[in-house]
Amino acid sequence: MNDFRAVVLPGEGTDGFCVGSSGLLLVTHDGGNTWQRVPVPTHADLFGVCFREDMLEGFIVGAGGTLLKTADAGRSWQTVSLDTDSDIYGVCFPTERTGYIVGTFGLIMRTDDCGATWRRLMVPTTADLLAVSFPVDGETGLAVGAAGTILRKVAGSEHWFATGGGIAGVANLRGLCFPEDDVVGYVCGDGGTLLKTEDGGETWRRLEPSVGYVAFHRIAFPRGTEHGVCVGGAGTILSTDDGGDTWTAACCSTAEDLLGLSFRPDGEIGCACGRNGTILLTTDGGHSWVRAESVEL
Question: Where are the alpha helices (DSSP H) in the chain?
Fold first, then answer.
């Protein structure tokens, strides 16, 4: 089964990258219409991908402690050795040198040398962590994960602490987005869970998408804090234009679970990916979607 787990459309060009099961990495050079396989030195399932602002260096994370790095805009990839065999689900690089990865059993690791070496951080949980975001710098960020876990780190401290007051219950939280700064942010997860913070993650309130108990996997706000898109199980795509107070279902040509979501900086062009080789494209900020023309599996 060729499932795509994550996608990224870095910068304002036409390149993009999509990762998935059994070491699957695809690249597009035409804005997402066609995708071709790129060889990587692993057959592990791949769960996350990100690129730094220079668009030359990028990172892919996956099962069994897999971490791959490129220094040539994704043309070639090398394995980075980590002192863990945990599955790694999330990766972000908020600054040129500082990055974070998160994974199973409460794993959070940090690098301060562009990904060459990593050290494990102490956290107050053993829950699987599924997403991480440092929206402004390398010191203030959040991680979310299984059983309603929300962790927060603030500048001036190495410590992570639990937040959210149990508002998510036991739902697995899978997606995390701070669109403009480290103040207003959104989280999505299982059981139709959508949460919003307006104080940097200290407190959260529930949003009501009115779609039952669908599992939401990724959320993005590509045009500031008001316009957002959320994707999830059975081809669910929702959009909001009022900061999450109301949500509208978008038409799309799939019933497959959608697991990944990314937008270009213009906020109009985006890509969603999911199970059984599904890749969808939007050119209107996520209101309508079409299938990619060609996907090489």
Answer: none
Cα–Cα distance between 152 and 165 in angstroms, integer? 12
State the Cα angle at 131 between 184 and 112, rounded to 5°.
95
pLDDT average, residue stretch 9-24: 95
Q: How many CB atoms lie within 10 A of CB 157?
A: 10
In 3D, which of 22, 21, 10, 29 has the Cα closest to residue 259? 21
pLDDT of the residue at 160: 97
134 burial via Cβ count (<10 Å: 0-12, 13-18, 19+): buried
296's tokens: 């090489």
Q: Rounded to an integer, what distance in angstroms lies between the CA atom of residue 27 and that of residue 45?
A: 17
pLDDT at 62: 98
Task: Look over the chain and give the mean of its residue pLDDT values, rounded to a whole number.
Answer: 95
